[in-house]
Amino acid sequence: MSLRFAILGFLSSTPGTGYEIGREFAQGAGAYWSALPSQIYPELRELEKLGLIRGRIAKGDRLRRRVFHLTPQGEVALEAWVRSDTEYPPERDPERIKLIFLDKAPTQLIRRHLEQHIAHFTAKLEEWRLTRDAVARGTHRQLSARLAQRPEQDHALIACLKALALDGNIRRAENEIAWAREAIAAIETLTVAEPSLMPRA
Amino acid sequence: MSLRFAILGFLSSTPGTGYEIGREFAQGAGAYWSALPSQIYPELRELEKLGLIRGRIAKGDRLRRRVFHLTPQGEVALEAWVRSDTEYPPERDPERIKLIFLDKAPTQLIRRHLEQHIAHFTAKLEEWRLTRDAVARGTHRQLSARLAQRPEQDHALIACLKALALDGNIRRAENEIAWAREAIAAIETLTVAEPSLMPRA
DNA sequence: CTGCCCATGTAAATCGTTACATGATTAC
DNA sequence: GTAATCATGTAACGATTTACATGGGCAG
Asked: CB neighbours of A195 closer than 8 A, spacing ≥ 6?
């Protein structure tokens, strides 16, 4: 059900089209959730059918874009969901499941896997740090839109939560990178110590 | 496709039944992948149809359990998969997506969410540390079975990779706990500093 | 003989990805 | 005019969860 509420969440900051929601998932909001247009558009229909959002085509818009906004019921539904207990999905880690069965491969290949792990999270890290900087500088669009419609006394908390969530992701990326580096070192040590690869003169 | 290879990986350590695979996903292997019986049994059929595994009912077994083992083709398929580049799935984090929209809730409730985050990863941490200890002590069943069928010179690397993967999970859990603690502190600070909640005498 | 775990499944529903289709607008 | 981007979708497939069904073995 999370996609549904991720969409409601987006629309609770600012009204928007399906396309904009998709763009956000591919960028900023992609830090926590993601979906493709083929899933977004049907979900928007469903949400409208349920009365949680409403879409209007701005008059004079030749593209006939539908701009969706939350209904009061939508706000209530979102609020109930965010407050409800989180159900954590089972762990599914495509890299670590590979790693434990890579024990027949040459250490060079294991190393390459760990380096790609580092590369993956380095890219994520950069992305999330940029977003985090935008939040700190007040140039984050979604955040600014959200702040604009809320009393000033709430602004600090709103920005704080946004920053905290990004910090969590940033720390996770840093942690994965540090782990992979140490893993490479550990395997290196093992290989060097391996007698079969280091014949005594 | 990862489920398929997670099963092949399990069977590459030791032959086993669908039930045993399910048990493993619910425990040890659950650290990296997971699946329910309703997904496991059909997948075993498919894998047998593809010739990657074969199942036999041990004679005299009244429960008619099917014990599956890898075929040579299965070994090849597993080996090719573990060596292939990992495709990282999009980020989907049900807690952090909630957190950023929790900005209308009382800080007490935000705190409760973060405490449940800590509780979740504390439980995981304990689980993974126990497994990690079993690996270190040589009492880990899956690992022992795997070592038993491999030349002794490989044992160090096999155990090392298993331990490294668990370390990765352990570090991640520790990191999430540390993050949530700091997040609680940050929100606490904000609340205390909030003039509306701290009228000057 | 009853409750619990062992053991294997099927069916339906939900969630997510891949592939395909279509057309308008904008920048070059 | 043509390529890139904007914009909205449908269809089919694949992955995962939920619910249901069934029966044997074993301990008290």
From this structure: none
